[in-house]
Model the fold of this input.
Amino acid sequence: MNRKSITVIGGGIAGLTAAIALRRAGHEVAVFEAAAEIKPLGAGLLLAANAMKGLERIGVAGKVAPMGHQLSHFSILSKSGHVLSEIDSSVLSKKYGLNNFAIHRGALHQTLIDELPFVRIETGKRAISIDQGPQSVTINFQDGSTHRTQYVVVADGVHSSIRRQLLPESQVRYAGYTCWRALVENPGLALRGATETWGSSGRIGIVPLKDNKIYWFICVNAPANAPNMQQMTAADLLSRFARYHAPIPQILAATSNEQLLWNDIIDIAPIQQFAFGRVLLIGDAAHATTPNMGQGACQAIEDAAVLMDELEKHPEHALEKIFVRFEQRRISRTTMIVNRSWQMGRIAQLTQPWLVTVRDAAMRCIPNSLNQKQLESIYQTDF
Done:
């Protein structure tokens, strides 16, 4: 294999896992990140079994797993706390040897950075365009500087300028609901697993993390960039969800305004091309999805695993061909995830009381075995 110089645009989960894969495949790697500094931002995220398989494939699962909290159950509940659907993930973990983990995004991020001690990582470098030639690619940054490299892996997120340059028709779309998140101390609650509660006032998810922490999120239907939603306080959210079942009021009461993170929920409609000669789109730049299935970070990690798989199985191939093979393996799966997650969000965000009643009754009729099979289709990977 000929060692190539490959530049990764974006220092998030997609970019860092790809950098680890490329480095371990023997290439020279540099990472450019738009933020002024890389610091542990965000709240919690789910690393489902497919993500843990991906981390195992690139050789870092053993370091990530101790940072997470294993989840044995996932339940969807009604506003009153009745179980609408429940999945015992330990059944699937026995089959696949890996379970679901919840982890603080910052802890995962730092663990990935620690795996790249000899990789050049530059911050404050927002890529705005590229110029691709027959032997190299030049990256143009917002600060006026440029960087020349043999290949580029674009992992700079849903708002990627490079994706919009390559595919001008690929636009961000608003899902119709907005979201608050927070990471709080557990106020003495015994939580068996992760839950989502679906009701006419909105949806709230509760996920236990390591070190006695709880990650929660709330999704509420609203116009995009609604000022009244941006101005919501922890007390406002507590008032809105005060009639939801315990421990929702207790968790919201333990939340301060400073702990709140807010953003509208967006994705991009599935695109049908990731490989562009010497340039490859991965992660949210390629297949940004709504968070309804907890698969955003998981699919980014799968990207890195598939890329490493191709590099190791076909070391004689030019990277342009590797990128095309990657695209062929990833398009259908990521399209399925994006579409299914979008549809799930529409069902979960129903607000008309009569539709909520019909939905809840229908969900109770779905056998748990069918829910297990649907989850298993997500866990099955091709590496």
